[in-house]
Amino acid sequence: METKKKIMNSAFRLFAEKGNEFSLTEVANEVGIKKASIYAHFASKEILLYEVIDQEIYEYFFEIDEKRRDLKSTFEMILNYYRRSKTKRYFWKRLLLFPPAAFERTLIKKINMLTEQRYEIIRDLIQSDMENGYIRHQDPETVLYSFLAMIHGLVSITIIYESENLKINQDEIWENFWNGIK
Fold first, then answer.
1. Phi-psi sector, 19: left (phi>0), alpha (psi -120 to 50), beta
2. What is the C-alpha to C-alpha distance for residues 41 and 8, in angstroms, rounded to an integer?
3. Cα angle at 177 between 173 and 181, to 5 degrees?
4. DSSP per position, 47-94
5. Is-contact 132 69, C-beta < 8 A?
6. Residue range 3-23, pLDDT digits in tens
7. Domains with residue ranges and CATH for the chain
8. What whole-number distance in Å separates Cα of residue 32 and Cα of residue 123?
């Protein structure tokens, strides 16, 4: 199982770096095995990539602790996921902007379904905060998209400006957002 994990980690990193253009030879070289050994674990590059993407989808979408149900902790949990590594940020940007065509009907559909579920959770948090008087009454959809734009903007600036520090002024940015909606 250790070799399988190394293969998947290598494919994850190479996909984040190159998209679908990486080769199994590169994976084998990085792991220190022969290319043919990969086939003992994965029948094809597509199956390997499918498992890598599916595993990351699971980690991303099911990590958010639904017991801590407030907007700020959701903001922090999402950023904490991306803070773990630059590779994770590149992986998701590449996957969402340039998804492998072979997975459009499967994994991309799954991402869209899970994304809508996450949006619903955040939308409910926003609606609840409005009903409790923490946020002024306004269009919840606008607040949702502002929240998401803030997160995606923070993730993107670490890619664009090659910064490892995703926590750059995170608290101040949150306060500016919160003050704008309350």
1. left
2. 10
3. 170
4. HHHHHHHHHHHHHHHHHS-TTS-SHHHHHHHHHHHHHT-HHHHHHHHH
5. no
6. 999 999 999 999 999 998 999
7. 1-53 (1.10.10.60), 64-181 (1.10.357)
8. 47
User: Binning pLDDT at 50, 70 and 90, where does residue 85 land?
Assistant: confident
Determine the pLDDT at residue 163. 65
Please spell the DSSP secondary structure of 134-172, one letter per residue: SS-S--HHHHHHHHHHHHHHHHHHHHHTT-S-TTTTHHH
Q: What does the alpha-carbon distance between residue 25 and residue 4 come to, in Å, rounded to a whole number?
A: 15
How much helix, strand and coil, in percent to the nearest 5, is found in the chain? 75, 0, 25
Reading the block at residue 96, the tokens are 């969402």
CA distances for 70 relative to 66, 76, 96, 122, 129, angstroms: 9, 10, 26, 9, 8
Average pLDDT over residues 117-124: 90
Rounded to the nearest 10 degrees, the angle between the axes of helix 107-131 and helix 71-83 is 150
Nearest to 110 by CA among 43, 153, 60: 60
pTM of the predicted model as reported, rounded to 2 decimal places: 0.82
Residue 156's pLDDT is 87
More confident residue, 147 or 166: 147
